[in-house]
Please model this.
Amino acid sequence: MKLLLNHGNIENEINDRLQELKTLTAFGYGKKVAAEIGECVAKIHSCDFAQSKLPLYDVRWVMDLVCEHQTCEFKDDIIAALEFMSKAECYHPMGTVDLEGKHFMAWDIDESRWQNEYGSGHIGRFMWDMAAIISHANDPSFSDAFLEGYIHHGGKVPTLLSLYANIYYVQVAGAARANDFESVKQSTKEITEQRIFKTELISDETLSRLGMDVC
Model:
């Protein structure tokens, strides 16, 4: 069941969950903690933000970040890769892909930490938030436990393509914030020239065990 904004307790609910995340990760990101993080984030994503006025972070926001950098020599390639990944993740043979960016995002990509509180947060697609958390942890064993905890406790199951696309968005956003586009040069080239995206953040064993669809 979704928690609706007009219930009046949404701000307290989000703030309590964010405090829980900060407490959980105070001493590291082990597998048990990863599963508990997945559960907590799934509960945050269950809240209904359809009418929220919080800032929206999505692939268009990432493109705007990239465009601000006039000196990036392969800026056009990055934009092309972002556009390709965006179009690719929108494809679904059953037409059921979730394109709504109406979930509170627990991870603050601007500050590389959990959001401080409801009022300073932003919204986006649930897959962006998952990708940001997985990218930050940078550990396949964390990804395995996190995804299992998230899915087991009611979180939507992302497709592999959408999750990979959002990992790329997150990485490009981080590169733009740091003004270090070399970190995404190779992956950008693979997307624009070979139409592939590789990441070791999620193991084949995880994908097989959790039964994640490709698209």
Strands lie at 3-4, 47-48, 103-104, 107-108, 113-114, 123-124. The first strand starts at residue 3 and ends at 4.
